[in-house]
Amino acid sequence: IDLDTARQELEEFIPHVKNISDSSIKKMAGRDLMRFKEFKKQGIAVKFGRFTQKENKQIQKNVEDFLSLTGIDSAEKLLFTSRYPEDKDTIHRLKTEHHFCEKISEGIPRPWRLIYYRARKMFDPNNYKGRYTKEEKEKLKMYQALHGNDWKKISELMSRSNLSVAMKFSEIKSAINYGTWTKEETQKLMNAVKEVMRRKLKTENPSSLSSLEDSNTDPWIDREKLYQQLPWTEIETKVGSRYWRQCKQKWNSILTSKLTKGQQLHRGTSGLQAKINLIKRLYETKAEDASEVNWDELSNAIGDVPRAYVQAKFYRLKVSSVPLWKRKTFSEIIDYLYEKKLPEFEEEL
């Protein structure tokens, strides 16, 4: 299959395919296209976002089955082969002979690359090691001074995952302010987000940039655009006094504040109507897990608000209305709200 045809066929399953490099398209054509077509025949859509508990169990089963099939004695050897140089050639041969790509992604309607990354995260013994000690933080600063941002090298030296060391260094590299955000900091954050969104918009759709340049009003980009994943470590650098997670949380609160436009969504009849609409929409999704819900679509259920606002609304609803909610599955919580609380809210309204 040629590159243009592959890109065209993949577009049916991956809307943002035009932004993917040619080399990645070639790999996806080999690893994913046939799987996606099979899932389509079964009426199953390709998924993105957070992995469900069911998918995590399937990944675990796929890895264990592959280990049994090949005789490789640990998931770490299978997924982090570079840590075992003496076994590397044998493991690569076994992975090729027994079709590792197909086996690891069996039964999961997602791109192979995402499944592989998820498996590595699940089975990396360096991934869940708790808080960093003072000594570890000092070591991390020292290794970064020696090796720069070679997080793979640093992760091996510290026996922590790549992501863990990168994020921790981002957090400790400069004096971080933990107090209330100042006006100057907030403005820096908004300017940084605007800058990266302008660049993103220019890449994806140059013609739409003119309207952005002409307007200084808020919100300055379509609501849907504001939900997209942003490069938070880059934004952190531009803000200077906050680390990336603080920037992300502050931006979400700014979005909620701006996009609700001062609506009192938690009070009176509008608050009740919002609860009723949200419960009905959640029930209609028939989702078994929170990660299966399209929260962006649900935002229309209670007003022009971002997904984080809807998720927070649902959290408050289940905590205040569902007894022993921590012991219930997601679908059991929705059923309880629909069967027990919805009639009460409608009566009250």
UniProtKB/TrEMBL annotation:
Gene Ontology BP annotations: termination of RNA polymerase I transcription
Under InterPro entries, the record lists: Homeodomain-like_sf, SANT/Myb, TTF1-like
Gene Ontology molecular-function annotations: chromatin binding
* Domain named Myb-like: residues: 124-172, 173-255
Name the Gene3D superfamilies for this protein. Homeodomain-like
Stored Pfam families: Myb_DNA-bind_6
CC terms in the record's Gene Ontology section: nucleolus
Identify the domain of life.
Answer: Eukaryota
Name of the molecule in the record: TTF1 factor
Gene source species? Ptilorrhoa leucosticta
Q: Which gene encodes it?
A: Ttf1
